[in-house]
Structure formats: structure tokens, C-alpha cells
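Protein in question passed on here:
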Amino acid sequence: MAMAKRATFFDFAFIDTQPVRPLHRWLSEQVRAAVLDGRLQPGTRLPSSRAFAQQYGLARGTVVDVFAQLVAEGYIHSQVGAGTYVLPALPDNLLQAAPSRAFVPAPCPRARQAQLSQRGAALVHPPFPRSRPQEAGRLFDPYQPALEAFPTRLWAQIASRRLRRLPPGLLGHGNPCGYLPLRHNLAAYLGATRGVHASAEQIVVVGSVQQALELTARLLCDADEAVWLEDPGYPGARAILHAAGVRVIPVPVDAEGLQVATGQRLCSEARLAYVTPAHQAPLGVCLSLARRLALLDWAQRVGAWIFEDDYDGDFRYTGRPVAALQALDQQERVIYAGSFSKTLFPALRIAYMVLPAGLVEAFAAARSVTARYAPLLDQMILADFIAEGHYARHLRRMLHVYAERRAALLQAVAEASSPICVAGDEAGLNTVAWLAPGRTEREAVAAATSCGVFVQPLGPYTLQRPLPPGLVLGFAAGTPAAIRHAVQRFSAALAREGASTQRAQC
């Protein structure tokens, strides 16, 4: 009889009473009850009759008789040489019995918010979905790189080589700051490409930039202290800061980036400023040199910290990548954070922080308490990937791919006579598409849904500053042909949606 079998014996924990007379009845009732209430799962292998007999001081013949009775009743199956297993299907009369330990799903987070702390309640409604299905309709996802272009075979070869040569010592505990060779490689790469001043000892490997910001807010900001946040700005950062219990100060963004002078008027004594200087999320502007110097001067004067989120600064389509804000920092007030989610693939879950020297020990200790350390094997594979030049080659290739896809988006919008206008950012993996006057983001999302296209409205990025209606469109996840086809479908659907809205208003 074919059945799914569990490889290990079930121990004797399901027998929870002392033997009573008659012994064969006691044993059969114990096994039967364990099967019915789910403690013995279908396919679980039972101990042998000899093991039962030795454990409970029973005659082996008694156990054999009980097993034979349970086989006849349809609870278990026994085969010479293969062992005794719980059957995967029970008789109809047994299926009607209510299990004594039925699983009851927990209430949804909204129903249990009264039991959460204020910080906890701020975390149960994240600004992004818990999962992102990988489908063609999400090719405008602003946070999705070109996953199909990643060299998975090369990555697998490096992983296989690493596992074959893995010293036993590396199977133990890791360093809270991360794998040292990876940090050395990161320090060299960031210094050469982003102008970041860092030694390997100043780098801490984390799971994401979100995690880096959460750790920063926890260590450097007390409850109700003020933190500057770009307006519009990244919703994920806003969620982290609200959950940390700080007071978020929305600071407007214009063509030169964060308005530092306005931030000082709103709250000069802020404890932290969160910025995306290389490619502002979501407007795409680059923080000007004058604003960078003003921001650093403010941080030095008031003793504030700056969290620089360089989420996609490696991709610039005109000239070389702009140097990081941290490269100008002479007083060590900038915490620089980056990630491999955009340059490689999101599932890797490796990001990093470059810390001022005076913060390293505190962050390392806090990292050890909260998460111990990042998974070591992926860090080793990544270290080899960088050291052997594969990372630099991959970035050069992807820069060409993304430039082509960006050009395809701009051209497709221009040719489709679409009610959207895309100027085209000079960096990053996404851009803002402004809607024509009279159009709303709700109309645009409805039109996109009707034709199977995913778009991200601009509204959720804003805090207080009103902006014209727009969309945040990613161009990295689709081929030029797919982008052109999607723009045509979306433009036609948006035109129909607008006409329908006008008729309804009449």
C-alpha cells in the first residue's frame, strides 16, 4: 500500500497516562486517541512492538495483539520489513469525530490592535504588500529589477564551490557586523564608485535598508524626538519612523531635493534626517551640492544624524554615478545605507550600513542582541561574486539594459498620445508619470487594473505637501517590447476611463 511516510519514529510522548488494567485496552485507547486528535499525523511511523513492550513492561504478545486490532479497525498499517505507520485515510465513522485540539486561526491584526503597544500597532499595516507576485502585469513595479537577467547559473557555481570548500569553522556563529571579506570588498567598491570613506570595520551587514533605519531610529532617537522626512518620501521609511515613536517632520522637496532651510524653520533641533540624495524617492531629483553642504552644516551645528538611503544610486544614465553625501561628510554625521535588492535580486536580503567610527561598537552590540548576525553562506557567495569581478560586470550590463528600457518607456508614452507625461529621470529604476489635468490617480489605477497593468499612485508618498496627480512607474522589470505593449493598453484604458467619468458627471 503506497502512502506518505515520515522518516523518523514518533517518540512515546503521545502516551500520557500510566498503564491500567486491562493493558491491551489501555494501549489501544492511547494510540486510537492520538490518531483521532492529530497528535499522530498520517504517515507517522510507530515504534516497534518490541520497543513498546520494553518501555512499558508489557508482554510483546500484548503489543502485537493491539497492533493487529488497530490494523483491523483501519487506524494503522503494518508491513514486514517496512514498519508500522498511521494510515493516511481514516474510516468514515472516525472522520465524524471532532478532534480535541482543533486549530483555530488567530484573529486578523486589526481585530487585535487593542492588545498591541502603540509601536506595535504602527507596524501591522505596512505600506507595501506582504508578497509581490512575479507576473507580467507588474512590469511597472517601481521596486523590481530585471530578475530574468540575473546570472543564476554563475551564482550557483560560486555557491557550489563555496559549499565544497567550506571549513567546519564557518558553520558556527558569525560576526554581528557581517562576514569580514564581504565588508572588505564593500569598502573597496563603495570607495571607488560612490566616494564613500569607509573601512571594513565601519560596515555592518543587515537584511535590508528598512532594518538599518529601524536600528538607527532605535539607537539614536528617543520617543517624540523629531526626525526630518522628505515630502513626498518613501512610505517604508515613514512606517519605520512612526513605529519607532518619533515625531516625523515632513520637509518639502523641490527640483534641488530636500529644502534644508525649510526643515530648519519647521524644526531646527531634529535628531535625525532621512534623505535619498542620489535619486530622491519618488520624484527622482538629485540633491544639489549647495543643499548637501547645508544639510551637513546643520547636522554638525545641532548634533543631528543623517541617514542616507542610496537605494539605486548605482544606475545613472548620463555621466558617472553621483558621489554619496557621505563622501562630503567631514564630521562623521552621516549613516550611509545601501542594498543589493535593486542591483542583484530582492530575495537575497543583504544590505549594509557604513557607520561613523563612534557608532560602530553600539550598533554591533545592538545587532548582536536583536538579530545576532546575517546568514553567512549568502554573504560568502556575494563576497566571491564581488571579488571575482562578476558584480561590476553585472552592473555594467544592467546599466545598458535599463537605459534601453527607460528609453522604450519614454518613447512609448510619447507615441501613444497618452494622458500622462514622463520626463525621464537620469538615474534609478523608476520615474514619475504626471497625469493630464482633470485626471485622477483613482482613474489611472482603475484603468491599469482593467487592462492587467500594475501602476503605483503618487499619493501614498506624500505627507502634507499637495502634488499634482501622478504615478510612479518602474521600467526595469519588462523588456522594451513588453513596455511598449503595456503603455498602449494602459493609454487606451485610461482614455476610456476618462470618457466614462465625464459621462457619469454629465
Summary: Residues 5-10, 97-104 have pLDDT under 50 and may be disordered. DSSP finds 16 helices and 15 strands in the chain. The chain has three domains: 12-95, 151-389, 393-505.
